[in-house]
Design brief:
heterodimer, A: alpha/beta, Rossmann fold, 5-stranded parallel sheet, 9 strands, 49% helix, 13% strand, elongated, B: alpha/beta, 7-stranded mixed sheet, 12% strand, flat
């Protein structure tokens, strides 16, 4: 799909078709990023769908998704390219045995055949009909050195390999960066991107997400789940659950054939939502102590028309 | 100062003259208003925003808001300020009638434009103009409370202010622990080493050249040891007097255990004492320091001292690897807005700022004094140092942080 034909409504619509519910502001930002060709930096708590949107977009744009998962110590060799040393050495040995042309070997072992493409080079060299979607996931986990290096790649979309020369992008890839904000990203990198902060969804949006993903879910249960999640996010837990947890939980409840929530069900299936022992313990206390009252929550939650 | 409707209105008013016809002048004026309220915006962002203005229907206020926000704002904390300025700025003239017909990107940058562009100078100016600044929410601030009472370990919980000679050995041990923890952080990046854990094919190939391509040596890689630089700023004014013994020991200990520590003391002015305490003889060091420092036990002007530090020392001493440790009780007699500005500046340069406050331990202490309040939003860690326990806690926290 050509981004030039897109509109904000269209973005929202095609994402929804792939079961990604997004609000108008996010759709606007995504649309701008696609049309302007500017990378989009998405920040937000864990599990609000930062990574997911890039995946879904790749699907709807019929583009190749190239993902670079960041970690501390990630360097140019793992992100960009590396020479295939064993292959080069084998070739040299082979030529030695066969008394091949030395000059020829020298030039040939430094060609693209002997190059291992890592995600960034792959994104730049991609020659499909559509530009690829480059997802640089959890950039906050990489270190400053890598950020500086990324800055260079993202500003020119070209890479220089000393032995081969400069390779520039045929199509500018659509770039999405995500960050969980374990540390601040440098301003210089931020300035090259559009910025959006994805909030936890509102009750209505979360309800929509559940019913879109699981049309078979009982409306009443979906409401209960949303009300519960909204409440729990306001409470003092070590790790607040995101949308990913909501969906896990919903699918678990559906698999268990539950039609609604009660205290017992909640406690039984809580492993989907809380992943820390302390949090599970805290939750149990809250339920036992009636501070977290499911019926009251449901009564207070807005009525949804299905 | 808080961001209120009034300060926002004042900022919007002050840029009214810069508003003109066309998208760019208006957006520049908008960016200037944001800048006055302490939000960083660069010219390239404004240009991109203007360029993208014809991509959405700008008559739709929500879309237009999303467009401006994603282009101009780079951190979530600035969203509230942005929203206030947005509502105020685009309300004045009835929104739909804001003249936007032309894109004047090529237009010569006006006086205001030059200011937008000058990253550093412009910013300084804008900062100097604006005493009004956003109060960053304190969510990044990890505040640790450390139990002050523990009957078994009387020594550990005894306040430094009432400590005798024999306790100093415990302090020294704690400091040694802190120092080694900082100094031996292992980086995940690798360097070539004789006894490494993995083979480095690139260097193995390169070394094999001299043997005619035959692999004779295996080059290996090992984890690099990352050295965190520490800059220590100690308050030696009168209000800190009872802690001065500890302070000196802390400075002295850290300096001698760690590579690359820079030590400064300040009261009304700042002095660098790194060279004075680079000796193993603590007694002599003491004499040298107190002999050469003006204003020891005097009043406090943290803002001015920080200003001196930022201007004269920070550019060469503070990098994104540095941890700045400030030890002070925060009783400041200087200009609070200057202090805040300098803290902001320092925060931008370094990796972390740790503020150690000996008063924090007392039960009824709250960081109420203006100086402390102004500095709080910029701290990564606000810890107490009042006994050996708290030092050990500091060591643990430092380790987690630099990891």
């Amino acid at each position: 799909m050509n981004p030039k034909q897109l509109t904000i409504e269209k973005v929202q619509e095609i994402l929804r078709k792939e079961q990604y519910v997004c609000d108008r502001a996010l759709a606007t930002v995504v649309y701008l990023s696609l049309v302007m060709g500017k990378p989009l930096l998405l920040e937000g708590e864990a599990g609000v769908g930062k990574t997911e949107i890039a995946k879904v977009l790749a699907k709807v744009l019929d583009a190749k998704l190239i993902r670079l998962q960041c970690y501390e110590g990630l360097d140019a060799n793992t992100a960009l390219y590396e020479w295939n040393y064993p292959k080069q050495m084998l070739r040299i040995k082979l030529e030695e045995v066969e008394h091949g042309d030395k000059q020829k070997v020298e030039t040939e072992i430094f060609t693209q055949d002997y190059l291992i493409k890592r995600p960034l080079l792959e994104a730049i060299q991609s020659d499909g009909t559509n530009p690829p979607v480059l997802l640089i996931d959890e950039i906050d986990r990489a270190d400053m050195e890598f950020e500086a290096f990324l800055l260079e790649v993202l500003s020119d979309f070209q890479i220089t390999i000393p032995e081969i020369g400069t390779i520039s992008a045929k199509h500018r890839p659509y770039v999405f960066l995500t960050s969980n904000r374990t540390r601040e990203i440098h301003d210089a990198l931020k300035r090259r991107c559009l910025y959006h902060w994805i909030e936890y969804p509102t009750f209505e949006k979360e309800y929509e997400i559940i019913t879109t993903k699981f049309p078979q879910a009982e409306a009443n249960m979906a409401r209960q789940i949303c009300a519960f999640m909204q409440r729990v996010r306001e409470m003092n837990f070590y790790k607040r659950p995101g949308v990913a947890e909501t969906l896990d939980w919903a699918s678990a409840l559906i698999a268990l054939n539950r039609k609604g929530l009660d205290d017992k069900t909640v406690v039984e299936t809580m492993g989907c939502v809380f992943k820390y022992r302390e949090d599970l313990h805290h939750l149990k206390e809250q339920i036992d102590g009636k501070q977290l009252n499911l019926e009251a929550l449901l009564r207070a939650s807005p009525e949804m028309v299905s | 100062m808080e961001i209120t409707q009034e300060t926002v209105a004042a900022a919007v008013n002050s840029v009214a003259s810069a508003r003109g016809r066309g998208t760019l002048p208006n957006m520049m004026a908008f960016a200037r208003a944001l800048k006055q309220l302490g939000v960083k915006v660069s010219l390239s962002q404004v240009i991109d925003a203007a360029r993208s203005a014809d991509l959405v229907d700008i008559a739709d206020k929500q879309d237009f808001r999303a467009l401006l926000r994603s282009n101009l704002i780079l951190q979530k904390e600035d969203f509230p300020v942005f929203d206030m300025v947005f509502d105020c700025f685009w309300r004045e003239q009835s929104y739909e009638r804001v003249p936007m017909e032309t894109l004047e990107i090529q237009g010569t940058p006006s006086e205001s434009g030059a200011e937008e562009g000058g990253d550093e100078e412009g910013l300084e100016e804008a900062l100097a103009e604006a005493a009004a600044k956003e109060n960053v929410p304190l969510e990044n601030l990890e505040e640790f409370s450390i139990p002050t009472y523990s009957p078994q370990e009387l020594l550990n919980s005894k306040d430094f202010s009432e400590m005798g000679v024999e306790e100093s050995r415990a302090i020294a041990r704690a400091i040694l622990l802190i120092a080694t923890k900082i100094a031996t952080q292992i980086s995940r990046r690798k360097k070539i080493g004789r006894k490494g854990s993995t083979v480095d094919p690139r260097w193995t190939m390169r070394r094999s050249m001299k043997y005619g391509g035959e692999i004779v040596e295996l080059v290996q890689r090992k984890r690099r040891i990352k050295k965190t630089k520490v800059v220590l700023l100690c308050d030696v004014s009168g209000s800190m007097d009872c802690y001065s013994r500890f302070l000196i020991q802390f400075m002295y200990g850290l300096q001698n255990e760690l590579w690359g520590v820079e030590t400064f003391v300040f009261s009304t002015s700042l002095s660098r004492i790194t060279h004075l305490i680079r000796t193993k003889d603590i007694g002599n060091a003491l004499e040298k320091i107190s002999g050469s420092i003006l204003g020891w036990s005097g009043g406090t002007n943290i803002g001015r001292s920080l200003h001196t530090f930022n201007r004269n020392f920070a550019p060469s001493m503070v990098t994104h690897r540095s941890v700045v440790v400030i030890i002070s009780d925060g009783w400041d007699r200087g200009d609070v807005s200057l202090l805040e500005r300098e803290m902001q500046d320092l925060k931008r340069r370094c990796k972390k700022i740790i503020w150690l406050n000996p008063l924090l331990a007392s039960d009824n202490y709250e960081p109420l004094c203006k100086g402390m309040q102004a500095a709080l939003p910029y701290l990564d860690l606000f810890l107490s140092v009042h006994n050996v326990n708290s030092l050990v806690a500091l060591g643990r926290t430092l380790q987690k942080m630099v990891a």
